[in-house]
Structures are given as structure tokens and as C-alpha cells.
What we know:
By secondary structure, the protein is α/β, with parallel strands linked by helices. It contains 20 helices and 17 strands. The strands form three sheets. The protein has a seven-stranded mixed beta sheet. Strands 12-13-14-15-16-17 form a six-stranded mixed beta sheet, with no helix packed on it. It has a four-stranded mixed beta sheet with strand order 2-1-3-4, with helices on both faces. Strand 3 (59-61) and strand 4 form a beta hairpin. The chain is elongated. The termini are far apart.
Amino acid sequence: MEDRYKVFYDDQCEICQAGVSWLRLLDRRGQVDCLPIDPRHLQAAHPSLILEDCLREIHVVTPAGQVRRGWAAVAQLARLFPATWVIGALGGVAPFRWLGQALYRFVAANRYALSKCRGGACRVVGVERVRRQSRLSVFWGCYSAGMVARFPLIVRAGLQKLLAHLVAYLRTYRRRIDFLGGKLSLCFLGGFPCDFVRALFGEQFLLVLYDGVAVDPGSSRMRRSLLRHVRRLPPGSIRAIVATHHHEEHSGNLNWLSGRAGAAVWVGAATARLLRPPRRLPWVRRTMIGQPPPLEEPFQILGGILPGAEFEVLPAPGHCDDHIVLYDRKEKLLLAGDAFMGTYFATPNPDVDSRLWLETLERLLDLDVEILVEGHGQIRTLRPDVPDTPGVVIREHPRKALEEKLRFLRWQREQIETGLQEGLPLRAVEATCFPWGLPWAWEAFWNDQMVKLLSLGHFSRTEQVRSFVRDPQGGDVLPAVYSARLYTGKPENR
Length: 494
């Protein structure tokens, strides 16, 4: 006899998905397993479970082996948690039981009409049947209903993330943290108003110093904090300065740091072209991070090896076309820059090409990496010689992290290709890429929308979609930050 309730729910119904999201939040004692309907799981859970019955209404198998269905299952689950116990108790007695059963029957009878099974959003049984009956207007109505049902969860997750960002900001404020006996150092940078970005969105800014090589020395607005770190370093600590790519928070202090440290600047050929002179940034980026100055002579162009260092220089386009990474084969350490920006990073700038990013991740998986250093303040490793540092060191094998990001981007590519084949508009394709049924989609919703709003659409989930279908010649950012639609009539794709 198992000690957990097994809940079989319709993974293509927004109401069911929202209910499962609440269940997972309430289930602090791990009493419930939520399982999408899958013929392979039903008989293993209980011999009486029939696929067609499970498709009509929710089924719950109790630890005692009893089967509850429909409203009775909902009431049973509600009685498990203090916050919903009253609902479950009343839902088991007349007349509340009758009202609950009537409401549940109505929703169950119209489940296909309530589905948003478009653009590859479905992965369970009955997909084609649902898709034929699911108009685009229903898609948007159901997607909106899913957001409303989860809104308290979205706000809660947003506040939790904001608190976590503030704590990480305070823990790393202007600090230098040394690893590997001082061979690797993370020098956290900031300035006004860059610190606002750090505190609100959790994007750390830093100089990585590894074996005398200073990588990505920050933007011009971070120069004072960089100067403090340089003054505290022993003379001769910096022998070379490298930028992984041309973005302003990575390249704004190249010549300045070269003058202070007396070290040569090394950049990729493509980065040099983009910085001589750099294009004028949108005013939001100029204001918040700072416009990088033109790259000036003298500087050196990177080849396959960084002279005088252990680093192999590897092309890593995707985040931007000129991106490179630095790999120490002996130490099994990868300085990834922005070639890895968290697994579910989904608000990129307009020069991201996710198709190239997929190819880069596949190549990086061929490397033997035990320490992955990200460009915005985190280290992923299981190595015991890298001590635990809250907010900085993540105990995860780099290969696992790279594989998970690769799966995420492949899944999004499939969603986008399916949606475009169906002729869905870009906004609908975007919605299928961030389904409410996946926790990361709604947990990051508040943060992602704030990024989109404050950048006037420059960084957004829409750009994530466009990064898979971008015109090689480039294109402007979509001007709309939000859009409203009014549907009338019955056309499929208005």
C-alpha cells in the first residue's frame, strides 16, 4: 500500500493545470502525486482505471487503494490541507455536494471547448480531436483563464524571486570571492543605476579573474567598483584582458582596464568589428548599463589559444554572433560568459539566435567540464574544492545543466515550428511556448513581464520566439509591449 494520493488529470485543460499548480503549492507534506493521463500509468495505478473515463473527469487513487472521481475526488483532495479543509468538508454534504457536482459536470462536458490545444501545446491523448474543436478565440480565452487562476501564485512567486534577488545582491555587494586557492576570483561590480537591475531582476555583474586573465570587465557605469577591486589586487595580477562578446556589461572597460593594469586586450575578430565603433544602444540600455566606448588600439585578435594562458578559445554563437568561451582543459573549467544564462532564461535581447545557440550547446557538451562559470555570477559544479557559497555556487554537474538547457531550447523550437505550421500569429505561438501547466512559465511570469515593460519590449519572451525565426539581416524589436484583442464571430485564426 502506498502512502500518497495519485491524481490523474487532463494535461491539456487550463483549469486542470491550474488546479494542479495549487495542489503542488498546498502539498507541503508530499501527500500527492499529480500525473498527466497516460495509458501506460493507469493500469499500474489501479486495475479499474479506464482511459475514456479518466478523460471525462479527474480520478484519484487513495493510499488505501480506493478510487475517487469527479467532484468527489476534488473534495477528497481539499480535505487534505488546512487551507482548503472547509471546502472539502462542505463539498461532501448536501446541498454543497450537489452544486459541486453540477459545476464539475458542466466543466467536464465542455473540456474540449475549454482546451488551448494549439501550436503543439498538447502532449497527451486525443490531441487531434481537441485541436479540431479548439478555435483561436477559445485558445486566448482559456490562456487568460489560466493566468487568472494562477494570479495569486504568480504574485507570490514574483515576490519570492524579488526577495531572493535582494538577498543575493546584499551577499555579493562589491565583493571579491576567491576559489581554487585564489586561481579563480569573481569580482562583483555595480554602480548607479546598474544596481537597480541587480536588485530587481537578479542579474549579477562581475569581472571573472582566472589565472591572471581578466574576463568581461563590466560596463562604463561600473568603473568605480572595478577600480576598487583593481586597487586591492597585488601588482601584476592581471596579465591579459578578454571580452567574451560585445555587450556593454562585458566590454565597456576593456581599454580603461588595460591602461590601469598594463595588460593587453584580447577580443574576437567579430567583437572587434562590433566595437569599432559600437552601435548606439537603445536609451534604456544606455541609461541602465551604459554605452560602451569605441574599442581603441592597441588590442589583439584571439585565435584558438590565448597566448600565455591555459585557455582554449572556442566560438560559441547564439547569445550573439560574436560570442566565444574560454576552456581550461587541464582544470576542466569553462568560462561560459553568456553562452549559458540559466536553464529557463527567456527574455533575450534582439540579437540572440537560438538556432545557433542549440548548436553551441551541443558542442559544449563534447567538452569535459567540471566547473561551469556563468557570466552573471554563478558557478555550477560538484567539485569539493569549490566551497559552498550561497547565491553563487550551485551544486549541479555542468553537464546536467547544459543538457537541461538544450532540452528546453529544443522543446521551444518544436513549439514554434508547430505553431507556425498551423498558421498561428506570433503572439499565440509565444503563448504556446510558455504554457501555464509548466511551473517555470508562471513562476517567472512577473519577472519577465517587468523586464519587458521597463525595457519597452527590448527584452521579452517575444524576442525568445523571434530568436528561432529571425531574419539573418536583422529586424526591429516588436513595438507593442502589450496587446488587447476582441474576438467576434467564428473565424479560426482572426
